[in-house]
Structure formats: structure tokens, C-alpha cells
Amino acid sequence: MTTPLSRDFWQGFRDGAPFILVIVPFGAVFGVVATEVGLNIAQIMGFSVLVIAGAAQFVALQMMVENAPVLIVLAASLAVNLRMAMYSASLAPHLGQVSWWKRGLISYVMVDQVYAASILKYDQRPEMTPAQKLAYFVGVAAPVVPPWYLATWAGAALGANIPAGLPIDFAVPITFLALIVPMLRSLAHVAAALVSILGVLVFAFLPFNLGLLVAALLAMMTGAEVERRMSARRAP
Amino acid sequence: MSFTTAQIWIIIIGLGLGSYLLRLSFLGLIGGRDLPEWVLRHLRYTAVAIMPGMITPLILFPQATGGALDPVRLGAALATIAISLWTKNATLTIFGGAAVLFALHFAIG
Question: Can you tell me the ipTM of this complex?
Fold first, then answer.
């Protein structure tokens, strides 16, 4: 029998499936590069299973190649993942009511694509219950996380047999654009996105990717302020 | 690279644990409690505040070209935005964007 919850799960699964196109090349490239750097298969899989955050993993790898001190490697790669705390705060009003072990599990699979697809859905369908929101979230994660492990392993096993020169690095911006454009549905959202773009360019000089966090905070303040003024104008 | 096996595992486990705690942070602490309206108003813009900033350098200064503006990647980004506005469908947008990317790569790359 099809219950409403399994419907939300499969809807999430369908929405998450196209991300395989991004996850597979990204994970494979990580496996290849990490092998070339000299990590063994257990260490490479350790990264992809324990961290599941491509950008931070690449930063850690890069710093290791440069022989940076262990603490600096950790600081720089964790700074890239500070945005996850913002995702966590943004999901709290939607998923905060579910039991603690489910929140613990959600946190493990909270990657960019799963977060963005879910928050887009929650905004479009505010009538969803926390249980439905959870089912959708898990549905999006299901086709995203296992391929990440498999692709990393394949990349590490196949090594440099992947043809060089293909622009697969650009799979990430394309997916993000596909997620961001539908979010720009009010003046406040557009203003926030513009401040985010300008801010990251202006604050590019800051170390450890902190420019992105400064830009994101300014963009959130911009979105909130534009929304406040628009609703104040609309009020009687 | 000159790290001992122990140091490599400290990095892997430290990054894994730290990333997990960042993801758990607010979701774990706040739980079902209600947040003030002004906080919620800011949180509504989290996704549009972070994601455009994350990809802007990847589009304008791709590492693969040493940071030079690349017509293949810029063209694919603009096409992806156009396809998204036109189809209003994320799946079609990802496939369409990837198709334009590879078409441009083999045509002018």
C-alpha cells in the first residue's frame, strides 16, 4: 500500500536522482586526485564516508600537498564547511520537531544538494508536516550519498584512466544554478543573491574562504531587510 | 606530502567530526523550539545567500583554466540560467546545462 510518507520519499528520490550526474564525476575526481597525492584506499574512503563534503575534502587535500601543519589543514577545510551550520539553522524550523536520532541522521547526510532541494520544496509547499519533510529529505539523500561513496572508490581504483581535459569540474555550478534560479521568486531573494555574488568578489581577499561567509551574512541581512520593507509597505 | 599515517587519520577524523558537529549544531540544539520572527526572516534567505557566492568564482575564474575567463564555462552557465527560466524544471536544467557544456567544449574548447 502506498502511504503518503512513501509518496514524499519517492518524490524526493526523483528530485535527487539527477544529482547523480554531478556526484559521480565529483567523487571520482576526488578518488583519482587523492590516489595521486599518495593516500591509500582506506584513507580515501575515510574522507568520503566520514566527511561527505567534496569542496572541504579538496581543500584538505590541497593543504596536505602543500605540507601545511595538521591544525591549519583542519582549520582551512572546516572553514569551507561553516556554511553547514547555516544550513542547520535554516532547516531547524522545518525538521526541529523530529526525534533526536533522526536529527542526528539528517545531519550526517546534510550536503549542499540535499539541503537546497529540500528547502526549495519546503518553501513551495509550506503545508507539509515535519514527517513529510523528513521523508522528502531522506528521499533526496538516498540517490546522492551512496553514489558519492561508490564514485570515490571507483576513482581511487581506476586512477588516471579517466580522460583528462573534460570540463567535469563545471558539473557543480550547473547543478547549483538549477537549484538557485527557482528560488529567486521575490525581490528580496533576488537582492540577497546579488549581494552574495558581489560580496564574494569584494571579500575575496579574506583567507580560509571567510569571504563567502561574510558575503552570505550580508546577503541574509539584505533579504530580511527587503522583505521587512516590502511587507511594511503592503500593511494598511 | 610528508604526513605520518597517524597525522593523516587525525585530519580525516577531525574534519569528519567537525563537519558533523557543524551540520548538527542548530538542528540539534534548537530542536522544536520556536525561533523569533526576525531570526526566521534571516534564515529564509540562507540558500540564496550562500549558493550564488559559492559558484560565482567557479564560473568567472575556473581553476581548470588557471583562473582565466572561459567562454565554454561562461556560455554553459548562461545557457543553464536560460533553460531554468524557460523549463522551470531542475532535472531538464541539469541535463540541458551539461549538454550545452559538452557541446561548447567540443565545438570551441
Answer: 0.85
